[in-house]
Structures are given as C-alpha cells and as structure tokens.
Amino acid sequence: MFYRLGRLFVIKTKFEAFLVIYGLACGATERGVHYLGTFPGYGGWMLFAACPIAVFMAGAKILDSFDVPE
Fold this sequence. Notes:
The structure is a single chain. The protein is mostly helical. Helix 2 (about 15-40) packs antiparallel against helix 3. It has three helices and no strands. The protein is about 75% helix and about 0% strand. The protein has helices at about 1-5, 15-40, 40-65.
C-alpha cells in the first residue's frame, strides 16, 4: 500500500521533471515579489535574485538524475 502511494511522488519522465521545475519557478518568483514588497531597494532585489537561482540549481539536479540514452 505504501509502495503504491510512494510511486505517486516519483518523477518518472523528463516532462514531469519540467512540470515540477515550472512549479518551483512560479513559487520562487512569487516569493521574490513578496520580498520586493517587504524589503524595498537593493536588499529586496538581492533576495529576489536568490529565489530563481535556487530553482536553477534544483532544476539542474533534477534533470541530472535522468539517464542519457546513447
């Protein structure tokens, strides 16, 4: 039972990986906009920039987990 439930949370294809990365990116930009409202000026822009950079690193790690067919 737990095995079948756990399979729902496994990324099986690159298409699913891109959907997950897209969701992470949407959330990161929303958080960045919130940071700009909370911290106006240079600090807000630095925090805004840090959010998508984290998504880039996570996306690269997710995509590297797939085998490359030769």
